[in-house]
């Protein structure tokens, strides 16, 4: 895959993620979707939907329940507040890698 495509994917993913987080911080490749940016539940699905609309790729194998809690799940919120990390680390860079892998699997035009 050309480097320019990867740069375009990075920029698009960062832009989409930035629209869906409510913390006052910059979004970078190493930003964790849940722990840094507090994206979970409906917001996480909105990010995935936007990525699908733009890149037309499938995210079915992404197990959202392992990277962030469902909307309104107070138990996990409390665990995080006292220092536990019940979800696996999932960064903006991980999303870029998934998109790039999926794009590389598409047939050439």
Topology:
Blueprint: H1 3-19, H2 41-55, H3 74-81, H4 92-105
Helix pairs in contact: 1-4
Describe the model.
The protein is mostly helical and 109 residues long. It has one domain (3-105): Non-ribosomal Peptide Synthetase Peptidyl Carrier Protein, Chain A (Orthogonal Bundle). 50% of the residues lie in helices and 0% in strands. The protein contains four helices and no strands. Helix 1 (3-19) packs across helix 4. The radius of gyration is 14 Å and the shape is elongated. The model has no long low-confidence stretch (mean pLDDT 89).
In short:
By secondary structure, the protein is mainly alpha-helical. Helices cover 50% and strands 0% of the residues.
Cα shape: elongated
The main β sheet shows up as: none
What is the C-alpha radius of gyration, as a whole number of Å? 14 Å
Helix tally? Answer: 4
Structure class = mainly alpha
Oligomeric state of the chains present here:
single chain
Residue ranges: pLDDT <50 for 5 or more in a row? none
Terminal Cα span: 14 Å
Strand content: under 5%
Helix/strand order, N-terminal first: HHHH
Report the strand count. Answer: 0
**Percent of residues in helices:** 40-55%
* Arithmetic mean of pLDDT: 89
Task: Report the CATH architecture.
Answer: Orthogonal Bundle
């Amino acid at each position: 895959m050309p480097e320019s495509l990867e740069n375009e994917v990075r920029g698009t993913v960062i832009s989409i993620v930035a629209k869906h987080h409510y913390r006052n911080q910059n979004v970078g490749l190493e930003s964790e979707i849940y722990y840094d940016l507090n994206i979970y539940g409906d917001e996480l699905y909105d990010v995935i939907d936007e990525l699908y609309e733009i890149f037309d790729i499938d995210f079915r194998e992404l197990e959202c329940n392992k990277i962030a809690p469902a909307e309104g799940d107070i138990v996990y919120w409390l665990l995080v507040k006292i220092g536990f990390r019940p979800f696996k680390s999932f960064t903006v860079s991980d999303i870029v890698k998934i998109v790039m892998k999926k794009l590389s699997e598409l047939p050439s035009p």
